[in-house]
Amino acid sequence: MNKKSGSLDRDRVRGLLAEGGARPEDLERYEEYMSRRGFFGRVGAFTALVGFGAGADAALRGLLGQGLIPVAWAEAVETGAMQSKPGMTVHNTRPINGEFAPHLLNDDITPSERHFVRNNGLVPNRAEKQDPQGWALTVDGEVDKTLKLTLDDLRQMPSVTKALLIECGGNGRALFDPPVRGTPWKNGAVGCSEWTGVPLKEILNRAGLKNSAVYTGHYGEDPPIGDHQAFSRGIPIEKAMDEHTLVAYQMNGQDLSALNGYPVRVVVPGWIGSASQKWLNRIWIRDQVHDAEKMTGYSYRIPAYPVPPGSRPPKEDMEIATAWIVKSMITRPEANININVGDKVPVRGHAWAGEREVRRVDVSTDYGLNWKETKLRKPSSKYAWYTFETQVAFPNKGYYEIWARAEDSEGALQPARQPWNPKGYLGNVMHRLPVLCAV
Fold this sequence. Notes:
Elements: H1 10-19, H2 26-36, H3 40-50, H4 55-62, H5 71-75, E1 89-93, E2 96-99, E3 117-118, H6 125-129, E4 137-141, E5 147-149, H7 151-156, E6 160-167, E7 190-199, H8 200-207, E8 215-220, E9 232-233, H9 237-240, E10 246-251, E11 254-255, E12 265-267, E13 280-286, E14 301-303, E15 318-320, E16 327-332, E17 337-340, E18 345-352, E19 358-364, E20 372-373, E21 375-377, E22 386-392, E23 398-408, E24 431-438
Parallel strand pairs: 4-13, 17-24
Antiparallel strand pairs: 1-2, 2-3, 4-5, 6-7, 7-10, 8-9, 8-13, 10-11, 10-12, 14-15, 16-18, 18-22, 19-20, 19-23, 21-22, 23-24
């Protein structure tokens, strides 16, 4: 460390980069990163935080040696935004999109007022007025009998209530490097609420599926913006017939809110959130993969193979994003909390893995050099999130990070650095929570 100048010793950083297998030119990448965000002064702050005690070598080797920067630097540029739900960070208002900080998502069942909002179109007037008059759900296409169901019809059908997780396909997009275009979600575009409704398979059985039925196409009442088509997504018949896929009309025991899909929505748990169509009024059964605007090109699609960061593979090499991959989120403590040396700090959070199970969640307080297994509690239903808990303590004063890394039932682990794709989908990089330890 060069404490006189308040900066990191370049030769030392280069040595740690080489030791960690990173490219020497990553140092220039850090400097460019900090320069474009006005972060040159934060190098000195980092020195002050970790420039003494056991934290210094661990921070340099665990962060810079893996090509990472302190998460506190990145979080320092976050700003507040308008709110349409208390505590929600709104990224844009037309259409409205907003998320919640992880510490506000600590509940096993996400309250409706803290469930993220992801819209592609405008909120329908019917939803704003909470008026079901004139609404109906049409089921047509490759069926034996076209159905037209009112809200009362749905409520009279046998219903179920399940805790089911929904996560925006772009959650974590702000953590991609190089940056990608789109709503800059961090970690909070996810929620696990209790949904009440009719299993979609019961509705499809009532309509009668023809042998030619292979895919659904969902449509809603939300008006499109500009010259875009009305937002529409779909799922394979096999997923539609899963007992957990619902046509839901209640969330946490209450009618759906305007922002979360009133009067009815699809809930397709385990898959990216765009499959869970809001303000639903039509299910078109197709004899082919649904080909609406948001099912083609680069929309909600990922490369069929790993691609170099910053590249854009041809459209024919893109495939539909479906199930989420293993992921975790720390909800306790709150980011940037001040703690005392030696204090036992409770750590809590959630984990999920799409169509797979979560096998374990580990945490690290020394930048990934060592890991500690947490106590993992299984969810109440297949597609709800798991909850993990443990305690940590810090032996010295300084800047630290708590890292969480989940592993799924097939051995897949969350990565330390985010694999890249051109639209920033399925981001599952390890969650890193900054803390400051005082005497």
